Amino acid sequence: MQAWRVHRNGEPSEVMRLEETDRPTPGPGQLLLRVRAANVNFPDALLCRGHYQVRPPLPFTPGVEICAETEDGRRVIATPALPHGGFAEYAVADEAAVLPAPETLDDAEAAALHIGYQTGWFGLHRRAGLREGETLLVHAAAGGVGSAAVQLGKAAGARVIGVVGGADKAAVARALGCDTVVDRHTDDVVTAVKEATGGRGADVVYDPVGGPAYAASAKCVAFEGRIVVVGFASGDIPAPALNHALVKNYAILGLHWGLYNRMDPAAVRECHDTLTAHAAKGLIKPLVSERVPFADAASAVRRVADGTTTGRLVVLPGAPEGAPR
C-alpha cells in the first residue's frame, strides 16, 4: 500500500515521504481500516516536529482523524492508533474507539467531525457550561477547530462573536453564522468585544490559539465568565495572572479531550450520538474547504500548520483530484 511516513522529526513538507509499505497488522482489540478520507489537524504537524504529547516510534504515518471502512463493510470514523496513522491507504484503530459515520455526512465531512466537534462539545458544555442566551467568543473562528465551536455555540442558542485574521476569513465566519465578526488585523479585539456586549464582555471564551488571543480574552471576559484553553496554535503558551482571575471573578478551564477517551469513554460515545443527531438536523456540518489529492498530503499539513487555511483540509487516499468523497 501507499503511505506517508516520517523517518525523522522536522517540518512536515521536509520529513513526510510517500512510500510503498506493507499493510499494518492490527494488534489485540484493534481493527484494520481502509481509509476513505483523512482530516488534517494541527497535531499532525506537531507529530512531524516531535512536539506533540504523544511521540510515536520512527518511522510513523501521521493522520489522527479518519473516515474509513471496516473489513466487514461498515463505514466508520476513528482516531488511528499510531504509528499507523490515517495518511495511508490502510490504518489501524482500537476497536473500542471506532464509531459509526453519520449517514448525513459524506466521507470528507465525516472525517472532520470527530476531534474538532468533540473538543468543542466537551469544552463548551462539560467544561464551560454554556447556557442559552450567553455570549460566546471564539478565536480563529474560520479555522477547523473554531468553525466547529461556532456551529456548536449557535446550536446551543448562544450569541457568537468570532475573531479572525483577514477579510477572507471574516467572510467565512459570517457565513458560519457568527453574530459579530472581529478582524484582529484591523480591529482592537478587546474594544470590539466590549462594544458588542454593551461593556459586559464574553461569558465563555473558546481559545485554541493562546498567546495574544489569550491576553485579549482575559481583558474582555465577563463577570463569572469562563475561558476554555483548547490549544496553542500561535506557538505561544501564556502564563495566566491568577490574581487577575481572582479580582475579576472568571475561571480558566483546561481541556484535553483525548483524556476523556481513557477516563470517561462512555461520555465520548454519548457526545458522538449528540453530534450525529445535530448533523441529521442540519445544526452542524463540518466546513470542508478543500478535498486534497493523496499526493498533496504533506503540503496540506504544512498549510494547516501555517494558519493560512479556512475550515478543514481533507486528504482522499486513492481518489482522483476533484472526486467527491
Which shape, going by the Cα principal axes?
globular
The topology string of helices and strands comes to EHEEHEEEEHHEHEHEHEHEHEHHEHE
What's the average pLDDT?
Answer: 95
CATH class of the largest domain: Alpha Beta
CATH topology of the largest domain: Rossmann fold
How big is the Rg?
Answer: 19 Å
Quickly list its features.
34% helix; GroES-like_sf; single chain; 325 residues; seven-stranded mixed beta sheet; alpha/beta; 25% strand; Rossmann fold; six-stranded parallel beta sheet; zinc ion binding; ADH-like_C; 12 helices; Quinone Oxidoreductase, Chain A, domain 1; disordered C terminus
What does this protein look like?
- With 325 residues, the protein is of the alpha/beta class.
- It folds into two domains: 2-113 and 286-316, Quinone Oxidoreductase, Chain A, domain 1 (Alpha-Beta Complex); 116-259, NAD(P)-binding Rossmann-like Domain (Rossmann fold, 3-Layer(aba) Sandwich).
- The protein is 34% helix and 25% strand.
- The strands form three sheets. Strands 3, 4, 5, 6, 7, 14 and 15 form a seven-stranded mixed beta sheet that branches.
- The longest helix is centred in the C-terminal third of the chain and has 17 residues, at 265-281.
